[in-house]
Amino acid sequence: MTWKKVLGLVVFLCILAPTALPAQERYNIAYAGFAGFQTPVWATKDLGLLAKYGINGDVVLLPGSTRQIQGLIGNSVDFAQVDAVTTINAINQGADLVMISGSLNTFPFSFVAQKEIQKPEDLNGKKIGIVGFGGANELAIVLALKEWNVPRQAVTIIQSGGAAQRLVALSAKALDATVLAQPELGEAIRMGMNVLAHMRDMQTAAFPMNAMVVRRSFLAKNRELVKRFQQAYAEATYQLLNDKQKAIAVLTKRLQQKNPKAVEETYDYIATSFSFPTRIAQQGVRNTLEMVAQRNPAAKVDMNMGKYVDESTLDELEKEGFFKKLSGK
Question: Domains along the chain?
């Protein structure tokens, strides 16, 4: 075979061979636990929305908001659904973080107590369990006590683990009260516990519970990616609000609940509370900043919203008509 024929054969084979593509980078999106209000993150993956918007990503469990913040700072996760108070505390300590959107702007908890505790005043001298100090659980309890005029020093707040552990502690009477979301709330009621209040009905309810957080440097370098993620997150939230069947399917998979009634209770309790468009309530941020400042008077808390929130990618999507197109309005 002549060299010309050999060269022609090589060229022909190169044309037939598939072009080698660089591996697409994979992104991690963190969630904090198995309560129903985590559903917007799960839905981005389970409803195929990450793939729809061209994102090669996984949703990963990092229990508790503090671990999520650590994961973001350490670059092990790229997006995290975190509560506002933990994020604001981290930013005030110098963390390169910013909240870019939100799907839940109220506390998803109910204040649950032993059946003999019938009114807020009965909490005096009692032990109240939380996930950990500095997070949304503690803030919810402090705000509720304030609204009820129950002095903070009149109760003992104890770090007691996740919702499942606190439910067990309630049943064993190791705790007198705690805040729970669904599905644990339904189980507590079936055990005979008393609901002192649904936090979303209280005056102090405005609070960004589901804030999507990224590193500011990541946003600056990956703006188009972040914008596509915002589309996936917004569509996930919209579908949860408007398609009960899809929402129930996501909850059934992620909660691993064998009781269909508990899954439906979870949906009914939380679904109508989600926010669309997926913006962070400014009043909720202000409430959080005021509480952070009150808790640590020596610290100088910057009340400038721009230090904590950057919704510029949402602003672009709104100008482009994305939310109107999604909702058909």
Answer: 27-106+207-327 (3.40.190.10), 110-201 (3.40.190.10)
